Amino acid sequence: EIAKQRKYLKKFSVKVMAGNVDTWEAFAGCRALGFDLFQGGFFGRPEIVKGRKLAANALTRMELMKVLQDENSTFKDMGATIAKDAFLSYRLLRYVNSPGLGLGRAVSSIEHAVAILGDTAFKHWATMALVASLDATPKGEELAYLSLQRAAFLEKLAARATASPLTPKTMFLLGLFSLLDAMLGQPMAELVADMPMDPRIKAALCGEANSLAPWLKLVNCVDQNRWCDVGEILKGQQINRNGAARDYLDAARWARVCFKAATENPENAA
Questions:
Q1: Which of 42, 50, 149, 225 has the smallest number of Cβ neighbours within 10 A?
Q2: Who contacts 101 (Cβ-Cβ below 8 Å, separation ≥6)?
Q3: Quick check: pTM over 0.70?
Q4: EAL domain: from which residue to which, for each copy (predicted)?
């Protein structure tokens, strides 16, 4: 029936979108039928291909993330970590020299930039930049944007909630890492196995039904437009719906600005 409808629509000069495409198998089938656009949760699910390894740049950036999440990392360690990535070094220097920080003097070294931002702020910024630049494909960029939006949304909700299981900054990491498996096409358990992070975050990312599971379910339901489920989860976490809606819009605006800054190519910068 779907094939017949698609064949009929070929008579018209229009693009045709397939809706409710929630698996990669469904995506492949719809693409084979000639659909032009696809809506659904399929791209947020990992497409695991047995034997596929991480690309060299993604592997390097995952290693950098491990250093950044290590509580024992020093300023020197973190400066050396960023210096290994030319684009990340450029973005860091551009960020600390931006008018928004109002430093009033130029910062020309990675070590100086790290010292100015401080431990927590630097780790926060660098982790965002790494996630945003893991995959430069259209799919990867969309997932990176969603990761940033999820991170900001969960951070804001945690600050609003009566009893958040973790601090807002830690909830930010939960959202930021929630789509790593979809971005990299690798099992989440393998990606976070050696990552020095709160074990509750690691367990939730790997599917364990702990206190963080409802928060991950919430962002998944938002992405899939399952608003009844969203309402129930917010109610269960004692979060005001109107406040959550404002937080979502603020997170979306922040993610757009942050993603642009985190992925800007030096060759395109003014």
A1: 50
A2: 95
A3: yes
A4: 1-60
